[in-house]
């Protein structure tokens, strides 16, 4: 019988049943493993892997035809040489994270605009100070760099909260979502940075996004700008960002992704001024909704796969997303 | 000439001009003082005071006919005996704070649901842990106790973020705002508490709101409930709330208002578990928008006053709001 290996930790009995029912309907048997916990032997029997399989284990999956990664970012999985065959189809779970990551972006943006880390320090000292200047999402000028599922989910929420102007920036510069007041192609990013108060970065790590927020572009941001990154740490010249923050040349930043991860204890990012650092939690899979959508998307694509239809979430490995 | 005393710190040249132009049109001259900085002599010459006049100074304002308080909460100003005459009209600035306070509520709610204080502790220890269970505003059951300007501004934002069910609770149980899925009168509060995941309190301090979140009602909340209070500290049995938090009987609380303020250094609230404490900052006047609206509302009511029309923001001193 054709076989699927599921390697994920969030498979509650309900989600397990949903996978099993869909697999049975499509003529597959399923074995369940933990996230990243590929069995030491027998990986060659699986035609499909869903969840997270460590890249170094993939080569042993000699029967693999489709790997559905449970994450949205698949930069570690794009290299053809990881696979036993170059024909392995890769799909991701982009679409499952827009909700939770957009709530993270909203939270850290409000924390920075409303000076929350400083108020938390004040409270830690048991002092009662209430007069630090604050700002609002209402009326603010926002640039969303990477106008995919995550960026657009945030743009819709910011719009609903009364953001003054939202500019989306994507490779093509096209995106029909009405949350954006304006769309720009990536090569015109420089023109919008000087008027950006909130720069939200939700980019995959691919050749032309690595280092996209360069030292020169950081210098184009106004003094009251804040930068939020939830995509990949490689998108930012981290050294230049730390310098700008420490010198007060921009108002603040919230980084959920950094280089490297985990961040070594002696790294200067830990003590950078006006930096709200989080340990890659924005897409935390503990949120039931995220996992439900994740499983739903896999099951839909499993039906597509079994019927010979194109996968909804197939990744172009050359493009990287 | 009839005279107005403005006692506020946020009077930028533009806002000052707006007040002066409106006053001139209405036949008034204006003197400007700082917030709470009533002049030692001559207070009797003012027919109108706008901003914040310390209650102990009001008695000297023997010519006072209208006091427009720049804050929304006027519990310190309701007592007739504060004034030289019981006929002094009191108005407040309810309506100026909905935007900024609703952004505060959103921020602290997300921080509690997403375990942000714990992640901040982890980051402070330079550790890299990403797997604490989180929750979302999306799909959550929210009760808004006090369905006025502030509560309703929050309800609209929560609705836009996909809240599952929003129940408003007000004295009358009436409120036409479509953000609420359901409205209840205050006396039926008990019936909605057991199914409340997020309890937002935005009540004025009046006789029947003092102690409204009693020990018995805290016991009705489910274990995963969080409580957010931005109204007045008196609305909660603080002792009972601290016990519930320390015992883990509810999931968390965010208090921007407490009893007393400022909180003494040795008070047990500072070290209560899962409590996000802020020093009464949610309605911080540093936000330009809040101050603009504040001045606009005063100027509109000044025109009403001069024309003999009823004031839009008149407070019923007996009712307290």
Q: Which labels suit this protein?
A:
homodimer, 7-stranded parallel sheet, alpha/beta, elongated, NAD binding (chains A, B), 321 residues, Rossmann fold, D-isomer_DH_NAD-bd (chains A, B), 2 domains, NAD(P)-bd_dom_sf (chains A, B), 5-stranded parallel sheet, oxidoreductase activity (chains A, B), NAD (chains A, B)
Brief synopsis:
The structure is a homodimer of 321-residue chains. The first copy, chain A, is an alpha/beta fold and 321 residues long.
Please, could you describe this protein's structure?
The structure is a homodimer of 321-residue chains. The first copy, chain A, has two domains: 2-96 and 287-306, NAD(P)-binding Rossmann-like Domain (Rossmann fold, 3-Layer(aba) Sandwich); 98-277, NAD(P)-binding Rossmann-like Domain (Rossmann fold, 3-Layer(aba) Sandwich), CATH 3.40.50.720. Helices cover 29% and strands 17% of the residues of chain A. Chain A contains nine helices and twelve strands. In chain A, strands 8-7-6-9-10-11-12 form a seven-stranded parallel beta sheet, covered by helices on one side. In chain A, strands 2-1-3-4-5 form a five-stranded parallel beta sheet, with helices on one face. The longest helix of chain A has 19 residues, at 288-306. At the A-B interface, α3 and α4 of A face α3 and α4 of B. Chains A, B: Keywords: NAD, Oxidoreductase.
């Amino acid at each position: 019988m054709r076989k699927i290996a599921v390697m994920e930790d969030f498979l509650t009995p309900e989600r397990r049943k949903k996978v099993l029912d869909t697999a049975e309907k499509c003529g597959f048997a399923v074995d369940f493993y933990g996230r990243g916990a590929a069995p030491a032997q027998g990986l060659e029997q699986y035609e499909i892997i869903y969840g997270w399989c460590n890249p170094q284990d993939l080569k042993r999956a000699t029967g693999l035809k489709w790997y559905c990664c449970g994450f949205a970012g698949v930069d570690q999985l794009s290299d053809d040489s990881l696979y036993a065959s170059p024909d392995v189809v890769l799909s991701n779970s982009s679409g499952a994270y827009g909700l939770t990551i957009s709530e993270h972006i909203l939270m850290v943006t409000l924390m920075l605009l409303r000076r929350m880390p400083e108020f938390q320090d004040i409270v830690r000292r048991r002092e009662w100070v209430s007069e630090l200047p604050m700002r609002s999402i209402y009326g603010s000028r926002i640039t969303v760099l990477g106008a995919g599922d995550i960026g657009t989910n945030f743009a819709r929420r910011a719009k609903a909260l009364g953001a003054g102007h939202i500019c989306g920036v994507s490779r093509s510069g096209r995106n029909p979502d009405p949350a954006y007041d304006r769309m720009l192609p990536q090569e015109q990013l420089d023109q919008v940075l000087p008027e950006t108060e909130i720069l939200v970065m939700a980019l995959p790590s691919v050749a032309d996004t690595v280092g996209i927020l360069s030292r020169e572009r950081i210098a184009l941001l106004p003094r009251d700008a804040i930068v939020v990154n939830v995509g990949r740490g490689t998108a930012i010249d981290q050294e230049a960002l730390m310098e700008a923050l420490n010198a007060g040349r921009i108002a603040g930043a919230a980084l959920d992704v950094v280089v490297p991860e985990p961040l070594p204890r002696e790294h200067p990012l830990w003590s950078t001024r006006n930096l709200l650092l989080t340990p890659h939690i924005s897409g935390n899979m503990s949120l039931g909704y995220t996992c439900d959508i994740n499983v739903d998307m896999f099951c839909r694509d499993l039906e597509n796969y079994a019927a010979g239809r194109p996968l909804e979430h197939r990744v172009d490995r050359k493009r990287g997303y």
